[in-house]
Design a protein that fits this description.
By secondary structure, this protein is α+β, with helices and mostly antiparallel strands. Helix content is about 20%, strand content about 25%. The strands form four sheets. The protein has a 15-stranded mixed beta sheet that branches. InterPro entries: Pol/histidinol_Pase-like (IPR016195), TAT_signal (IPR006311).
Length: about 500
């Protein structure tokens, strides 16, 4: 695969954008410190790698495009419920205008982004009448960042979720109806008795599944309320399974690396995980080898991970956040097109990284001249001898990240687990077959141009399996529980999996 730098549209000058954003010297200072960052794109070279064409047609023009689907604006506010209808006040929880987030997303190398503001009593009307017009303005002012419409959905019986609305003429109406009918905090003054039930969540997902075009739902900071390792809080394994069963093409994953990663810079916890910590900045559901994510993958579920900023207030203003793209990125292999990016997320064509440790990651499985990449399934005949070659290709950052460091990949791990089918215990949270089958250091990979290549062969594969990859700048064999370490010193990347089905 080749690589190029995405050239942003010139459009308005930075000074004009600053003026429209209305954020003055604080934003200007942050931009100067961060420096401009072009969005790196990793072009598909049409190797016949089995990528689905998707509704946009064809894979030509697809590239690794960085984005963030969990960002807050000033529309994460507060409500005065002493009056009816409640009165909304902007800026109580998050402080930046929508266009400010878009400017900073562009500055830190993102080509797509999404503001996901908190709900509340009658918030569906606030989104429709106040926030959406600001989104339309931001799209015009910052056209080279694709800006999705959606919200941080108040999921019935669960913690927050991304509700991502497809870009179409009725996007505002679609979100309004879904939030009004199903967000647990939207009803006022009377709350229906089932508004916060798992049954309501399943009803929401089934309704979403029937929409055309289809939205996406991704769980936020899934183990933030967990009180221990495997001691779950608001979000439980059976809720993920039941939701994914109800709408497998809608409810597709959770944040592997939650936001609020700058917490330790102001004395707080990474991710705001005050009960049980993250590991290397990643939620325990993702970071634990053989844990919940592996349990879900071991069923053959197409369940993906992402990384987000959850930006509310930048750490230089006393918050616990980085700007969108400053520290965490979700890369989607897609065209610079709303539909293809959304379908890339839905299909799992993604990897995640922190601290710009890498800027591309390709994972493939090949056997009998057939090749698949992340999110795809390679199907083989059990009656044949099946040697499967796993290939990992990655590009490290060529230069400094937004902390002024030159991060280096210290190790890459290949993780493989068996796919054994549905489990009888819907709260199962382990996959004992999952293991790290290879740990590769700089002496183990080959350089090809500006890529590094690792190959591993699975001999005589006679059972279905999946493979995924992680890498780190540290010397930790497993990501350790986080304390107050500087997040820039503890960087990790993760791929989504490839599947191999033996039939």
């Amino acid at each position: 695969m080749g690589e190029r730098v995405e050239e942003p549209d010139q459009g308005l000058s930075r000074r004009q954008l600053m003026r429209y954003a209305g954020v003055g010297a604080t934003l200007a200072a942050a931009t100067t410190v961060a420096g401009g960052s072009a969005a790196w794109a990793h072009e598909d070279d049409d190797r016949g790698n089995g990528q689905p064409s998707g509704p946009s047609g064809g894979s030509k023009g697809r590239a690794w495009r960085a984005g963030d689907h969990h960002i807050h604006s000033e529309y994460s506010g507060e409500f005065d419920t002493s009056v009816n209808p409640p009165v909304f006040h902007k800026g109580a929880d998050a402080v930046y205008p929508i266009v400010t987030n878009a400017i900073m997303a562009k500055n830190f190398g993102l080509t797509w982004a999404m503001c996901t503001d908190h709900g509340g009593p009658t918030h569906s009307k606030v989104n429709l009448e106040q926030a959406y017009p600001d989104l339309l303005l931001s799209r015009r002012l910052v056209p080279d960042v694709l800006q999705f419409w959606g919200m941080e959905f108040d999921a019935p019986a669960m913690d927050h979720h991304t509700l991502m609305i497809p870009r179409h003429d009725d996007e505002a109406k679609m979100l309004y109806e879904l939030e009004r009918r199903f967000a647990k905090n939207d009803p006022f003054p009377t709350v229906p008795p089932d508004a916060n039930s798992e049954a309501k969540m399943i009803e929401f997902l089934k309704v979403a599944k029937g929409l055309n075009p289809k939205p996406l739902v991704i769980a936020h900071h899934a183990a933030r309320s967990a009180t221990g390792l495997g001691v779950w809080g608001q979000d439980t394994p059976h809720e993920f399974r039941n939701g994914n069963n109800a709408a497998p093409d809608i409810y597709v994953g959770f944040e592997g690396a939650p936001g609020h990663q700058a917490g330790p810079l102001n004395g707080g916890a990474r991710g705001g995980y005050g009960n049980y910590p993250t590991h290397g900045g990643y939620d325990q559901m993702t970071a634990r080898v053989g844990g919940l994510w592996d349990s879900l993958l071991g069923e053959g579920r197409k369940w993906w991970i992402t990384a987000t900023s959850d930006s509310h207030v930048h750490h230089t203003r006393g918050g616990s956040d980085f700007w969108p793209g400053e520290y965490s990125k979700t890369y989607v292999h897609a065209k610079q097109d709303y539909t293809d990016i959304m379908e890339g997320i839905r299909s799992g064509r993604m990897f995640v990284t922190t601290g710009d440790l890498i800027r591309s990651l390709d994972l493939s499985a090949t056997s009998r001249r057939k090749t698949v990449t992340v999110g795809e399934t390679l199907t083989l005949d059990r009656r044949s001898r099946n040697d499967v070659e796993i290939e990992i290709r990655f590009r490290p950052l060529d230069g400094k990240n937004h902390h002024g460091d030159r991060p280096e990949v210290n190790r890459v791990d290949l993780i493989i687990g068996q796919v054994t089918g549905p489990v009888s215990d819907l709260d199962a949270a382990t996959n004992p077959t999952t293991q790290v089958v290879g740990r590769f250091g700089p002496g183990d990979w080959q350089r090809q141009g500006d890529e590094y290549v690792i190959r591993h062969t699975v001999r005589d594969a006679d059972a279905s399996f999946y493979a995924r990859v992680r890498g780190t700048s540290t010397d930790e064999l497993e990501p350790e529980a986080d304390g107050l370490e500087n997040p820039w010193d503890d960087l990790w990347f993760y791929s989504n999996p490839v599947f191999v089905r033996i039939r």
